[in-house]
Amino acid sequence: MDFRRLLFLLLVISASTDSSAAASFPSAYEVLQQFEFPVGLLPEGITAYDLDTGTGSFSAQLNATCSFELENKYTIRYEPIIEGVIMTGRIEDLKGVSVRVLSMVWLSVVRVVRAGPKH
């Protein structure tokens, strides 16, 4: 086997290994669904995340701070790094998420509890 064929074969094997690993690694939004949360809980644009499956500790990264209005009453803000502990139907010790109430006061969101039926 000549060098070019061997190099091509190695590249094909490497590419197929990389794509199968990426396909088996769930997105941050898929992880939310595994813990019975809607994907809309996180804004679009998560660039990376880490999850310790033993403890539920996680961090998720955005390129920049992100905010949006909810029901024309509240503004939700996500910092570039969001951290917490996730378990089925609950997120505890949340950092990096805040909500503006009364047009001027920002409050940190430290806990999220899923209420209602799963859809």
From TrEMBL:
Xref: PANTHER family: DUF538 FAMILY PROTEIN, T31J12.3 PROTEIN-RELATED
Leader sequence range is 1-22
Superkingdom of this entry's organism?
Eukaryota
User: Which keywords has UniProt assigned to this entry?
Assistant: Signal
A Pfam family the protein falls into: DUF538
Q: Looking at the keywords, is Signal present?
A: yes
**Which InterPro entries does this entry report, sorted A to Z?**
At5g01610-like (IPR036758), DUF538 (IPR007493)
Q: Which organism is it from?
A: Punica granatum
Entry protein name: Uncharacterized protein LOC116188853
